[in-house]
């Protein structure tokens, strides 16, 4: 796991002259994520399906309560496409200025439909996890069983004409084990939290697979057709589940 800082800083940044904020927001996270990549022996498949320009909505499965899937996916999208994706993230990460500033610096924005549409109209890459927190907070006995998809990502794609790129993340389920999902409906309606078994990540092998883009041939007004939107979201979920199940069946080793 030998990492060379000179190779890591391909931008040829002079560390002595570097702005402290640049080190905190750019260099240090990049260095840590490269260490994580080596630790998980992460492999990327289908990178050619990420467009080099223009809008696209990347829709991954969500797993592993710690959120490693989010940061590693964002990091490798940037590496393979040379584009910084906008990752739509839970509102809790933006409740204070101390949290929101570093999140925004790393390309994370609050997960709202207007934010998604805004960045897609700017021809940017947007990442949205259709399962939401129910995906990464589900108990480990439901590993690789996709939870119900929220339909906002389909509406965003129809309204902007952006293709949807389904994405599969394998390995995060075994990296962090979750005992159960806690529902806090009495205190915060709709809020769920994990009950983890381990906080130190286990060295599972990771793979991120980008499937072929899905182009939706509908006028923007169709985004208000609830039945159509529900059907499209269900079809994409079924496709992702089939592909995910096939990969898991063929996987020979998890940790070796």
Molecular structure report:
With 256 residues, the protein is α/β, with parallel strands linked by helices. Helix 5 (113-121) packs parallel to helix 7 (152-160). Helix 4 (97-105) links the parallel strand 3 (86-89) and strand 4 (108-110). The chain folds into 2 domains: 1-39, no CATH class; 46-250, no CATH class. The chain has helices at 5-8, 20-39, 68-81, 97-105, 113-121, 133-136, 152-160, 172-175, 226-250, and strands at 43-45, 56-60, 86-89, 108-110, 125-127, 164-170, 178-183, 192-196, 207-210. The longest helix has 25 residues, at 226-250.
Quick overview of this protein structure:
The protein has 256 residues and is of the alpha/beta class. It is built from 9 helices and 9 strands.
List the helices and strands and how they pair.
Layout: H1 5-8, H2 20-39, E1 43-45, E2 56-60, H3 68-81, E3 86-89, H4 97-105, E4 108-110, H5 113-121, E5 125-127, H6 133-136, H7 152-160, E6 164-170, H8 172-175, E7 178-183, E8 192-196, E9 207-210, H9 226-250
Parallel strand pairs: 1-9, 2-5, 2-6, 3-4, 3-5
Antiparallel strand pairs: 6-9, 7-8
Which key features would you list for this structure?
single chain; 256 residues; 9 strands; 38% helix; globular
Mean pLDDT: 87
Largest sheet: 7 strands, mixed
Major sheet: order of its strands? 1-9-6-2-5-3-4
Structural class, by secondary structure, is alpha/beta
How far apart lie the N and C ends? 15 Å
Low-confidence stretches: 11-17
The number of domains = 2
Which sequence of SSEs, written as H and E, runs from N to C? HHEEHEHEHEHHEHEEEH
Which value, in Å, is the CA radius of gyration?
18 Å
Overall shape: globular
| β-strand number | 9
Strand content: 15-25%
How many helices in DSSP terms? 9
Binned, the helix content reads: 25-40%
